[in-house]
Amino acid sequence: MIRISGLGHRIGSARILDDISADLPRGALTALIGPNGAGKSTLLRLIGRLEPLQTGQIALDGRDIRQTPTEALALRMAVLGQQTAIASRLRLRELVAFGRWPHHRGRPRPEDARIVEDALAAFGLLDLGGRFLDEVSGGQAQRAYLAMTVAQDTDWLLLDEPLNNLDMAHARALMARLAELVREQKKSVVTVIHEVNYAAAWADHVVAMKCGRIVAQGAPHEVLTSGILTQLYDTPVEVGSHLGRPLILHHV
Fold first, then answer.
1. Rounded to an integer, what distance in angstroms lies between the CA atom of residue 119 and that of residue 93?
2. H/E stretch holding 227
3. pTM of the predicted model as reported, rounded to 2 decimal places
């Protein structure tokens, strides 16, 4: 479990997060939802220790992340942010192979190569493995970054808007893949999602944020209600049901 206690964060005089406390369950797919500027990405970056904590505490399975060596944390948690600034003259297979670095420390083994190939195959990229990043579409590059994150083979995956640049088919396939990792490989996933219907269909746990605070958290049917979503997004939202899951009608 990731336990967040009294978390606060400022950039200059701007308060980005204010007294955030939450338990993100292990062995579950947790979706962070909310309007632009809610603080979702900042929260994810703090959990992944991409930024230093200012106030509050984050514990990973009972251990303060500030006291966890970076090398050990990289074996427990993989993070994919929105900003992926890696040289474009890098082949997709080489990019995905970066995910194995925490395991081999510059001395790749046959097992590492196999995991890279498996990750490429899982995201439909085997035929593109030899292409450079600037020779593929934005969606294909996004899938390569996701494959790199999965290849790191950690207990926890932190993903910031992983559906960016993905078309309908690949977005659905990604959510199904994440759910499969949780269900079959006992992974734990925390992901920022803008389209709430993906959270409704696939998440086990939802954290709704607005203006740097948590508005609601719990199971999808507890959080994804008309009242909460209308307040969260400042627009009328109706909620129906499909296959026992909430169906959010926000487009009409």
1. 10
2. helix 226-233
3. 0.93
pLDDT tens digits in sequence order for the chain, 252 residues long: 999 999 999 999 999 999 999 999 999 999 999 999 999 999 999 999 999 999 999 999 999 999 999 999 999 999 998 866 666 688 999 999 999 999 998 889 999 999 999 999 999 999 999 999 989 998 999 999 999 999 999 999 999 999 988 999 999 999 999 999 999 999 999 999 999 999 999 999 999 999 999 999 999 999 999 999 999 999 999 999 999 999 999 877
Phi, psi of 6 (to 5 degrees): 55, 40
* Residue 189: exposure state from Cβ atoms within 10 A (0-12, 13-18, ≥19): buried
Q: Which helix (H) or strand (E) holds 93?
A: helix 92-97
- Please state whether 176 falls in left (phi above 0), alpha (psi between -120 and 50) or beta: alpha
